[in-house]
Amino acid sequence: MTPPPAGTSPRIEVGPGVWVALAPTSQDTPLTLFTTAADRSTARQLPAQRRTDRLRARGLLRALLRDRFPAAACADIGYMPSGRPVLLGHPRLGISVSHVADACAVGVALDRAVGVDVQSPPQDVSDQLLRWSVPTRRNQLAALPPADRAREFTWMWTVKEACGKATGTGLAGPAFSLDVPPGGRAGSWGDYRWVSLRHQSPIPLTCAFSSTERGTPQ
Q1: Nearest one of 67, 61, 2 to 35, comparing CA atoms
Q2: What is the signed CA dihedral for 103, 109, 115, 116, rounded to 10 degrees?
Q3: pLDDT tens, 70-124?
Q4: How far apart are alpha carbons 160 and 141 in whole angstroms?
Q5: In what order do the strands lie in the sheet with 205-210?
């Protein structure tokens, strides 16, 4: 088993065969050392910041694969019509990637669909935003001090995003209407489970995955 790159979180198993890793961008971690030539080639066409974000996330994904599923560590990455990334030639492995200015996170799952989302809390969460995005929890969040409201809202939002990624429909699908309780650490939604890593991550981070085993289609 290879050790995590410096500055990354431990590999966290949030469900059977479902692994998540997080890396802060504040530390100059050598994640690009894990990228493949294909990763670097496709990233060259991107603007500088997007290229950096892409390579950090790809490097973290490759490091997690090397640690838990080494046979797939160098597999090419493709995309389904929905935008969901897939490991070509490894249909049993589901993957997901998320990045913001502060961090990048990745998830890998064996025989399950998976989605991860990491978010930085905004400076402010308006009442209008609460009415639009979490109407059933609006009053609970509005009662919190502004900084706590922004952070709690972000944790709840990562659940919606992660579930949307796991289903492949994004927030344009039913995940947008998911009712997430403030302070929630884990829950179920149809055939999916979600886990918010409140005790493992300094930044809001949630992983969602299918609760029944199944292959991830290519």
Answers
A1: 61
A2: -20
A3: 999 999 999 998 888 999 999 999 999 999 988 999 999 999 999 999 999 999 9
A4: 16
A5: 114-118, 205-210, 192-196, 186-189
